[in-house]
Amino acid sequence: MGTVVDAAIKDANGSLPSHKKVTVVFVLGGPGSGKGTQCANIVEHFGYTHLSAGDLLRAEIKSGSENGTMIQNMIKEGKIVPSEVTIRLLQRAIQESGNDKFLIDGFPRNEENRAAFESVTGIVPEFVLFFDCSEEEMERRLLSRNQGREDDNIDTIRKRFKVFLESSLPVIDYYDSKGKVRKIDATKPIEEVFETVKALFTPLSDKVI
Ligand code: ADP
Ligand code: C5P
Ligand code: MG
């Protein structure tokens, strides 16, 4: 069920597009709203491949890439990395996965991300999951996440909240105007949030794992 997009996914070197049918769900929400946590549950139950834009950028820093220092500085300031960098990483991960269903987590983060991804890949999301959570709760979660992230400190967290309000919420509004947003109360406990999420994915699923 649902629309499956016949997307032209050009490879990272810009060679001829290979046509592949893919289903994409964008997973959005403020920092600490629980995107990564819920994506892990969705992967386990519904066989999607989870692509976190933030994780891909952090891996790019670790790999010693020439963009590493620029990415690291932007993450430290809570700023959004230029779309061409992030989209190249997403395209590569899509191609390497061998899967045809993807959760793209933390992307698109601004209008530039959204428009560039759409024009480069031709992919239109099946729907957009929006984890709605108060700043107070997100701040509490980020300060106790303990994953050694350089951006989980109070100064950077405040900057990330500002970027979310100014740049990311308008993207959610855009998809809302297209009837694509599925808003979820993410302040609830993890299991309760997943019950709501599950109900959205079950109709799309041919087999529940
Ligand atoms: P995001 O990917 O949106 O930044 P994470 O999934 O990494 O958020 O969650 C941030 C922190 O909050 C993690 O330590 C996670 O275990 C915790 N967390 C996630 N969802 C919930 C929830 N519903 N209730 C309480 N804590 C949560
Ligand atoms: O989603 P996550 O919290 O892992 O993102 C961490 C940081 O990675 C963001 O604050 C931002 O600096 C960077 N990022 C980005 N563009 C994206 C996703 C993340 O620049 N689309
Ligand atoms: Mg995350």
TrEMBL record:
One of the GO BP terms on file: pyrimidine nucleotide biosynthetic process
Single GO MF descriptor: nucleobase-containing compound kinase activity
CDD domains assigned to the protein according to its UniProt record, in alphabetical order: ADK
Kinase keyword on record: yes
UniProt cofactor(s): Mg(2+)
Family note: Belongs to the adenylate kinase family. UMP-CMP kinase subfamily.
Name used for this protein in its record: UMP-CMP kinase
The species this protein was found in: Escallonia rubra
